[in-house]
Amino acid sequence: MDESRKEPKRKLFQLRRKESRAGGRDPWYAPERDLAHIGASLPRAAMAAMEEEWWEPWFKQYMTDQRLCYDDLPAAARCFGRAMTQIIHAKDPVVALEESGFTKLPPAIQMIFYTRLGQCFLAAIWSGVKDIRRPESDPPAEISELLEDIEAKFGDLLNKHAPNGTQ
Question: Which of 13, 46, 82, 95 is the most exposed place for a label (fewest CB within 10 A)?
Answer without folding.
Answer: 13
